[in-house]
Amino acid sequence: MKRKLEALGAVLAAGAVVCGAAVASSSPAVVTAGTSSVSDSSAVLHGTVNPNGSSATYFFQWGLTTGYGVGGKPHSAGAGVNPVAVEETAGDLLPGTTYHYRLVATNQFGTSVGADRSFKTAGRPPPGVSTGPATQVNATGATLTGAINPSGESTTWWFEWGGSTSYGQQTAPKTVAAGSSPKSVAASLQGLLAPGTIYHYRLVASHGASTTSYGNDGAFMTYPSPRPIPRVQATTTPVRARRSPYVLSTSGSVIGPPWMPDQYACYGNVTIRFFRGSKQVGFTLAGIQPNCSFAAQTVFNRLPGRKPHPPVRLRVVIRSISNAYLATSRAPIEHIKLG
Fold first, then answer.
1. What is the spatial distance between Cα 225 and Cα 325, in angstroms, rounded to a whole number?
2. Contact 270, 232 (CB under 8 A)
3. Are 250 and 317 in contact (CB under 8 A)?
4. Mean of the pLDDT values across residues 72-84?
5. What would the DSSP string read from start to end of 59-89?
6. What does the pLDDT look like over 320-334, one tens digit per residue?
7. Which residues have C-beta within 8 Å of that of residue 206, sequence separation ≥ 6?
8. Which end of the chain is more exposed for a tag (fewer CB within 10 A), N or C?
9. Hey, what domains does the chain have and what are their CATH numbers?
């Protein structure tokens, strides 16, 4: 009997350990609760954390979407087995704006995430701002454009601009009346800029110092004066096409000056012309790609000319058409034969 009791005691003891482990080996239980003290720029977020017997930490996440983006500081929730009320103040919020938030807690056994909840801050929302394109660009100026949603309140706006994303200069402030639909705005920099220079700009709108909205950065380059002459490289193959149809492939590149970014230098068209003597017998237009290259095919179904007798010798003239940033230029002349 004594041995049976000892054996039973050992089994019960082992069971207690297993049960204890079962209680401890669990991630925290988390509940995202409501909010309090909601103002136009902050709110107190609430929730509960049950550490489930293992030392746990918690933090809140919040943001404009369920992607959140802002995380509060981690805090201890202890190591108990009962729910603990927790809170965090979310600050630097926009007025009149809906935010999402949730509670997250972790211990040595895992991480638990509370359900998503949302709240809306007090006051009117900030103005909506969208930086538009620079128009009427020339060598010494441009017109900056954008759109503003006043969000129901009279709104002051201006453009920041300069040689970098630090800007440094701004246009004179102007005002759009209260409303709930986007308003187009524009400001002229005509006669204020240097030729061949990259400028950055953005639209700014404000309901006051605490509710200022910034548009995305935009950039443009004024036209150089004079326009640089690019270097055009091209090759037409084959040098000798023996059978019809005679398919000729021309490829190459238009290379601007090293200081000019490709986005300004690499656009436009290249003309590919074929001459027999002084008469043009073939023409192809090729677009310049974003990497400054171009490629095209020209097909002659028969030998060109009034009295074609093989081989027919052709001169290939390849020229880049001028654009706002580069002058016209020509590749070295090539010669090919058909037949």
1. 9
2. yes
3. no
4. 94
5. EEEEESSTT--EE---EEEES-SS-EEEEEE
6. 999 999 999 999 999
7. 127, 155, 156, 157, 212, 213
8. N
9. 27-120 (2.60.40.10), 128-221 (2.60.40.10), 231-338 (2.60.40.2550)
Closest CA to 50 of 116, 115, 114, 118: 114
Select from 124, 105, 121 the least CA-distant residue to 113. Answer: 105
56 residue type, one letter: A
Type of residue at 257: P
Question: What pTM does this model have?
Answer: 0.72
**Span 45-66, pLDDT tens digits:** 999 999 999 999 999 999 999 9
Least Cα distance to 313 among 335, 284, 334, 285 occurs for: 335
The span from the CA of 157 to the CA of 155, in Å, is 6
| CA-to-CA separations, 271 to 148, 294, 315, in angstroms, rounded | 43, 10, 14
* In contact, 333 and 273? CB cutoff 8 Å: no
Rounded CA gap, 236 and 286, in Å? 13
> What span, in angstroms and rounded, lies between the C-alpha atoms of 224 and 95?
45
Two tokens, residue 308: 């074609």
In angstroms, the Cα distances linking 27 to 59, 107, 115, 289 are 15, 6, 16, 55
Tokens of 103: 């509670």
